[in-house]
Amino acid sequence: MTIVRLMDAPSTDDMASPNYARIAIMNRTASHRQSALILTGFMLLLLSCNLGTSENAPPTLAPLPTPTAPATLGYAAARPAVLPAIGATSLPPSGDAMRQLLDQVESDRLMSHIRSLQDLRTRHINSTQTSAEEGIGAARRYINDQFEIFRADSGGKFYTFEVGFYAYTSPDERTPQYNIVGAISGAELNAGTIIVGAHYDSLGTPRDSGTAYAPGANDNGSGVAAVLEMARIMSASQYKATIMFVLFSAEEVQRQGSIAFARWIANDNVNVTGMINLDTIGNIHDFNGNREDRYLRVFSEGPNDSSVSRRLAREANFLGHNYDLAIDLQVMDAVDRENRYGDHQSFSDLGYPAIRFINAFEEKRNADPTDTIEFIEPDYLRRSTQAALALVTALAEGPSPPANIALREREGGKKELVWEPVEDAASYIIALRPAGSLIYADQLPIDETKVVWAGFSDYAGIAIAARDARGLIGPLSQEIIPR
Fold it and tell me: Which of 49, 134, 320, 393 has the fewest CB atoms within 10 Å, counting from its CB?
């Protein structure tokens, strides 16, 4: 038996959980009630038709190197008025499926989206909704136009719609806003729904001005670009689970857009198995000119041992390692940075598993007139997008996690871990979490469905993932706790 050491495990004492604000939402606009009813039926349709023991010596733990891709600085390219044909291919049926999929992420497309959004001058919720050249209305139409291109090229697999709501701009005023959604209906019954989202509104100085320059390149043109690029690539295929790509408005005013959407989802009883929020993922510098391009931070709601959101964050770290991504996903022991918030919290507040990807460093250009495209690092953004694409693909298309897992006592202080075979599994990976660890620090690749070992009692949590013949690794099983 060979146990692979993943990395040094951070402790739950590393960071304190922040407090964050909550705010009530308004009902969706009357003009969108009919479309919302239609979409309710649509979502229900999606959900209803989602179509020998071996004795082993104690293992030797081996350190595992962390891959680091070199970053490149600078980007200069004229943006096209309309992006060309999507140029994506379906998920390949064999071979290194994940690598072929990730290789379709293009820095030029990502940067083109950011340039287009920045050129609108502001995406503040108080900005104009009627101009073709600036404001949040123009941003909304740009995103819808991209989704329409993907829909037209998807062969009927990709759908797009809006969910309207009212956002407070002051205690006495409110403005109509829209969350923009693209969806790929799942092919298997009860496979659930994966949501990947980003907010498209921006802030300038002063923060309540609808006319002040608010380019929002990193916060959050980077996240919007990543969601659009993922939608382009994934719309060429259908997956076991339903996937929803959501661009939220009004995040910058106490995340009113995602609160409205999460409650809409909950009211329709949508089975959300994971929400990934991409917010500020393209810059590698801190306040002091230092740079860090080796990892993204992954925030999630605690507590560490029982939260479904923390479990999803651990799963992202686990899958990122096993897919040999060119960027690390570092699990943080907090729902977000201290006294800050993100759209993932709107989902974890309702009990859904939800996480946030964000830059390794805090940087001064957020919500600032200098948050412009020249401070975006294209290769870092590409690798960040690949990480999100890998996670969503694994959750939506990977083999099902093993079920009916049992840990039985054996002679000599050993335990037998056994589970039911997964129909399309070629092998399995046992993930092992030490006490106090935020991640699965060790793992055991195995071809069988049972293993006997005395070392299981050294861990606080054990989970298992299946790998299919294409090399796709699926979601982790529910964690079991050795007794």
Answer: 49
